[in-house]
Amino acid sequence: MTPRTLKLRAGLFAVATVLVAALGAYLLFGRGPLPIQTDLLAMLPATEQNPLAEAAAERLAHANGDRMVLLVESDDDARAKDAARALGKALATHKVFGSVTAELPPFDVARMAAPYLLHRFFLLTDADRGVLAQPGHDPAQALAQRLNEPFVTGVGVPLADDPFGWLQHWLAQQPWSRSPLLPEDDLLVAHRGKATYVLVTATLDGSSYDDGVQHRALGALHDAEQQITRDYPGIRLLRTGAVFYAAAARAGAEHDVHMVGWISSLGIALLLLAVFRSPGPLLLAFLSTAVGVVAATTVSLLVFGKVYLLTLVFGAALLGEAVDYSIQYLSARANAGAQWQAGTGLRQVRPALLLALATSLLGYALLGLVPFPALRQMAVFAIGGMGAACLSVFWLLPALLQRPAQPMTPALVRGARTLQRALATPAHGWRGALAAVLLLLLALPGWTQLRHDDDVHNLIAQPAALATQEARIREVTGLGNGSQFYLVQGKDSEQTLQREEALETRLQALADDGRLGGWLGLAGMVPSQARQAQDHALLARLFHDPARLRQTLADAGFRPAAIDAYLAAWPGTPLRLDDWLKTPLSTPFRPLWMGCSAQGCASLVLPQGSENGALLADAAAGLPGVHLVDKPASVTGLFGRYRGYASVWLLAAVLLIVPVFGWRYGWRRAPRVLAPPVLGIALTLAALGYLGQPLTLFHWMALMLVLGVGANYAVFLHEGEPHAADKPGAMYASVLLSALTALLSFGLLSLSSLPALRDFGLTLLLGIAFTALLVPASRPEIGASP
């Protein structure tokens, strides 16, 4: 290939790279906010066979996702309330908040009962229903009990409108009556011991996962918090909301990207300078890597439209593997000396690079089979990046490396030669089999200590301070997290509510036993028409004799006008779901109604005070149309299943590589070439066992890459050694250089703030190290040579 041809190809490749970079820049910066996905839910796979259940899980997760929930705490009641008012006013001055709620508009709590007066004869509690159903029920006794009830401080019903207390009892069981937060001085307040807690909420004018919204909202809260802590000493502020977790996740990812990117770049730069003794190879190696990263980012944005946090950090680590291809070409140039010709060097390394690329892409392709959006994006990112980096070696570097280069640093080559011989010698002859047996015996105790942990909560670490505050807020306010809920389905709204009532009967039994704190469901607020008809029929027994009922009320001291008004209200009208959903009181509970479609209707019931999945599942067992949706448990189960499949995938990957190596190296030699990555995987598993690391799906996915990267090192050594026979140790030096660059990047992932990437990085750190040390054993003839 002539220099002119090489330059023409390089020019075409450079133009293509610039176009890809321009497209990537547009996708990244030209369409509004940065498409960086910090929503943890979006990284998780779909786990429910019922699409409606999956939609419900996402709906609940985002129902309050763009809202800050703040609790102002103080041992001084007046100071807590004043500070909450000041906090609300301070936040309201910032445009980043669409609405801020601290002080409530003045209202009469008793007026909340007014919308239900028309339906009072259709709404009974279980207790009142049981009493009314008893033979010989005496209404005078119920009336006397009502007259002697203590003064109602919550949502009350005027005595004249509800003389027997049936509506009052029903309202007392509603969520707004049971809430620990009560209206007090136009604020929502809870008391715990000496402490007073005042609720302040702020709805963002934008998404919690928008970087700009995050910065403005957190900055506004920081300023407001400083103001109230200065003006009201002793105030404590608790907070929760998706915006806080999203910001923490973004900050952690940015820290990891900087740590991995800068440290690995610096380390790789120093290594390349030490080995090649010139800044030229360093710059070209990073140029090749930059081409890979640009292509990977552009392809990921084209395929997915956004970039996940896991991919960002993983992309920084990809530097260490993408640079391998340019290192092999630079090593061939250094070993050729004065006889260097760019085209000849390219033909020399092409088989090794293509074979290495194929094994790496195989590992990433298997990674992409996992139905986990973040892992699939990592696979696409790697495939695009590795492919572009390898193409840059074929099309770009030859035109830029026309002149010969000085050889590698002699001391490093001699050191690599000494290490290579030391590691190859035990693998010669019968000693190789014995060494393999000893290694496996050494690994055996580690294997026996292996265990698994598929808990999805280990995927991404939540800041302890935020988790503690969220738990305290939930305890004080009674707000749930919506990660577990029942999906209730029926052919229409009536059947859906009836099925929900059957579920709530079981939940009430659990609550009575103290095993459940309660639940939140629509049927408790809007009973089915069948239930209301039953309640109305029970009351009809009393109203069928209005003269007797009038006398009962008169004997109790009710005025004739009040009695006339009460009797005239009979029979009333039933409460209907569609009408109730239009009332202001239903606003906080509307997300519980999923609506109706051609397939039927659906509602949600939220259990509270228990996260025992087995207990909650038993409550729904055998009930038609009722299904417990437990998103964390579902994802955990999915991880467990795919972690179980991973060993099969790993074996399949090995079996796919065997015929490729058999074709290239012959069937007798292929097992030795494949032995380093396979033994490296075995030793990595043993080391994880010794370290007490429970295996997760991410450990197994990393082992897929250990197989691909380890096979690369074996290929580099076997393909390059014949071309560098006059420079013993030079080829292994380039393999060690590739391994060290990978350790500087992938290995740094073991320090990531994301547990999933820590597992990934630690496995690669161990696997790459073991494989690089085992590679010389695949060529024992080197150890046997004088």
UniProtKB/TrEMBL annotation:
Main location as per UniProt: membrane
Membrane topology: Multi-pass membrane protein
SUPFAM superfamilies: Multidrug efflux transporter AcrB transmembrane domain
N-terminal signal peptide: none
A Pfam family this chain is assigned to: MMPL
Gene3D superfamilies reported in the protein's UniProt record: Multidrug efflux transporter AcrB transmembrane domain
Keyword Membrane: yes
Cell compartments where the protein resides: Cell membrane
Keywords: Cell membrane, Membrane, Transmembrane, Transmembrane helix
PANTHER family with a match to the protein in the record: MEMBRANE PROTEIN MJ1562-RELATED, MEMBRANE PROTEIN YDFJ
Protein name, UniProt field: MMPL family transporter
UniProt organism field: Rhodanobacter geophilus
Taxonomic lineage of the native organism: Bacteria, Pseudomonadati, Pseudomonadota, Gammaproteobacteria, Lysobacterales
